[in-house]
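TEACHING EXERCISE
Course module: macromolecular assemblies
Task: Read the component lines below, then compare them to the predicted structure of the full complex.
Student: A.B.
Group: 4
Components provided:
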Amino acid sequence: MTDAARRWPLMGMGPDRTGRPQPRVGMLAFPGLTLIDLVGPQAVLNGPMRTHLLWKTTDPVESDSGISITPTMRFDDAPDRFDILFVPGGPGQAELFGDAETLDFLARQGAGADWVTSVCTGSLILGAAGLLDGYRAATHWAARDLLPLFGAEPVAERVVIDRNRITGGGVTAGIDFALTLLVHVFGEAVARTTQLLMEYDPAPPVHAGNVGAAGPEIAMAALAVLGPVAEMSMAALQARADRFEG
Amino acid sequence: MTDAARRWPLMGMGPDRTGRPQPRVGMLAFPGLTLIDLVGPQAVLNGPMRTHLLWKTTDPVESDSGISITPTMRFDDAPDRFDILFVPGGPGQAELFGDAETLDFLARQGAGADWVTSVCTGSLILGAAGLLDGYRAATHWAARDLLPLFGAEPVAERVVIDRNRITGGGVTAGIDFALTLLVHVFGEAVARTTQLLMEYDPAPPVHAGNVGAAGPEIAMAALAVLGPVAEMSMAALQARADRFEG
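Instructor-supplied answer key:
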């Protein structure tokens, strides 16, 4: 933990509703994840909360952009429950849809967590673990049609809260998701302080952050990039959904 | 390289002004960096560009939030020049201000790069390497007063371009910085496609991204968190600045 993180308990926030000074966040760190899906929320949450990167081993895991990160906790060493369970998205999810060990771990942890959360196509992984059946949820704009495979209702919003599920839209929505979580767990002062520390005062130089603003030509270009990723996921996703229905 | 990254050359963007299909970005990955300073821009740039994480060794490096990443290239194995040199910030910078090997590496690479860039207090590191003398530059809001130590003129903007220097403000400004770089190197279509892929359509749930919006109470809370980080950097920073002046 860094000096900055150590300072948080000194800020007089007091314990959150769980009675612990630093709620524990278990964050899935799987091979082929989209790294900023994980690092955006972790940057927001770490300090006010205590974050752990979960995988089967603690060997470095390669993300979809070539950066490798080191998980901090094995599934087998995880506590019975985390206060918050978080799942990012990324092309590596194709492997997870058929990975009973990981989906069972998520299902078990999701049953006990105060908050069950995701960003981007992490909601498909939550869905495959049976954790979004009957819930409204967000996901990456290009993946919304897939949520009903697992009984979830897709919602075209940046952050969707349904009971104790909080799901974010694509990639950069993770920062807005995590600030929203801070508001719910600690209140606005902690969220605002974190926002200022991260100077989160966005000023995009172009304006194509959603399909409507981007227009059809840019949307087609984006889908051309996403095509192979979607193809990788689709067969495994359908197989899991068939089991889910059955 | 992921499938998504491989698709970029198929999008008909053609070579950039350097004549290469994928400009090379050398990104400093030092112990104690603020990980999202690096991962934000890397998520934007990787694909259209080819990113490399540079450090003295390729052993995992621990970031300020506890996540370790693996550098992909040693200083000794770096090419003579990168098209873009990039430096993130973070509390570990305290060590860098007195680290001749790293500052000499940056000075040498900065002399040859098309673009010399930074996010957050990475501009202080560029300054310590002698690369911002006489330039206007951005940095984290809490560090602006330190830029003149190295002959730079602080500017309270999210992204500052002065000749071939592009510097971003604190932490999350890295995403806006990197989209700005894409506009300059490739034009708006690539920047807009990237923005849509990352669903960068920010919607912060609270509004305290700058000191004015945050107000004095939140600003004081943020400074209390940053205090120990600033103290760590200050002595080394002053020592380097004295050498810079001398």
